Amino acid sequence: MKWRKTMGMLLMCVLLVTVAACGGKEAAPTEQQGATGSDQTNQGSGTARKDVKVVLDWTPNTNHTGLYAAVDQGFYKAAGLNVEIVQPGAGGADTMVASGEVPFGVSYQESVTQARTQDVPLVSIAAVIQHNTSGFAAPVDRKIKSPKDFEGKTYGGWGSPVEEAVMQSIMEGEGADVSKVKKINMGDADFFTAVKRDIDFAWIFYAWTGIEAELRGEPIDMLYVKDYAKALDYYTPVLVTNEQTIQKDPELVRAFLKATSEGYQYAIDHPEEAANILIKAVPDLDKELVLASQKWLSPKYKDDAPRWGEQKEEVWKNYTDWMFSKKLLDKEIDVTKAYTNEFLPQ
């Protein structure tokens, strides 16, 4: 699993979500993880549990641990749900949720914002992590200590306008010129291969690639984008549903979020046990990396919010205004329709 690829998908989602893409159902997920089993009745009550799927944004990682914990610890069962965690089909998680193929998925604020400009009915119902943990990273020998140091260096990315807009925003604040950065496509190379080959820095999630750098003994300098521009402290990732699910079955959304919040609270309180749950569900993952990543990330799920999942209108407005100012949106949106805290447990 490479979070470099997750970031690439994140950036491409901003550009590729369209009404047409969400108009029909895509192929079924190619892999399923974390199924709750064949028993579909609430123990002792005889009441049938409701089958529910939640689709991931990419391959399983520590962003998703709360979902796996909610399955493993029986929180979904207690809420009357038989939850299956699946990976996205060819059209991606946003398409599957927006079309109604699945009721819930993992997405990103930037993707939801772009979708709303095109009348795609995605709604963010919880912030998985309170603050943006992504940023630009470089091996320490490249001496990139501030955005100004990007000048004269080579950036490895995916050719998305979002990348250059973010880089420009944080460089301008330091009086630097983004046109002095050489940009190349990283292709299929991961961060560690690319920085040894032909780039100086790249955009990563610290919770995975940064932690992996620590474990490899390959120290990096990390410049979190949120530290240089308030508007870039957006929610990534988020849990999403669609407007139809909210209208037709609000109690399903409420029950799903109650159990999910319990799963993330478990991961907050028990990071090592939660890491082992993820490893058990997805045994191909690097155990040492998952454990180290989980210990780093668990406190950041809730962070300074009054409860896990809480979203602020200010965060949505700041990022939407920034995207519009950078011509990344065709029009402005009503951010109050892009997210809701209504279904989070009190």
Q: Which secondary structure elements does this structure contain, and how are they paired or packed?
A:
Elements: H1 3-16, E1 32-33, E2 50-55, H2 65-72, H3 75-78, E3 81-86, H4 93-98, E4 104-107, H5 109-117, E5 122-127, E6 134-139, E7 154-157, H6 161-172, E8 182-185, H7 191-197, E9 201-205, H8 206-216, E10 220-224, E11 238-242, H9 243-248, H10 250-269, H11 271-281, H12 287-302, H13 313-325
Parallel strand pairs: 2-3, 2-4, 7-8, 7-9
Antiparallel strand pairs: 1-3, 4-11, 5-11, 6-9, 6-10
Biased composition (Polar residues): 30-46
Domain SsuA/THI5-like: 61-274
Region (Disordered): 27-48
Q: How would you summarize this macromolecular structure in one to three sentences?
A:
With 346 residues, the protein is α/β, with parallel strands linked by helices. The protein has helices spanning 3-16, 65-72, 75-78, 93-98, 109-117, 161-172, 191-197, 206-216, 243-248, 250-269, 271-281, 287-302, 313-325, and strands at 32-33, 50-55, 81-86, 104-107, 122-127, 134-139, 154-157, 182-185, 201-205, 220-224, 238-242.
Structural overview:
β7, α6 (161-172) and β8 form a beta-alpha-beta unit. This protein is α/β, with parallel strands linked by helices and 346 residues long. It has helices at 3-16, 65-72, 75-78, 93-98, 109-117, 161-172, 191-197, 206-216, 243-248, 250-269, 271-281, 287-302, 313-325; strands at 32-33, 50-55, 81-86, 104-107, 122-127, 134-139, 154-157, 182-185, 201-205, 220-224, 238-242. It folds into 2 domains: 3-131 and 237-337, D-Maltodextrin-Binding Protein, domain 2 (3-Layer(aba) Sandwich), CATH 3.40.190; 135-232, D-Maltodextrin-Binding Protein, domain 2, CATH 3.40.190. A 6-stranded mixed sheet has the order 1-3-2-4-11-5, sandwiched between helices. It has a 5-stranded mixed sheet with strand order 8-7-9-6-10.
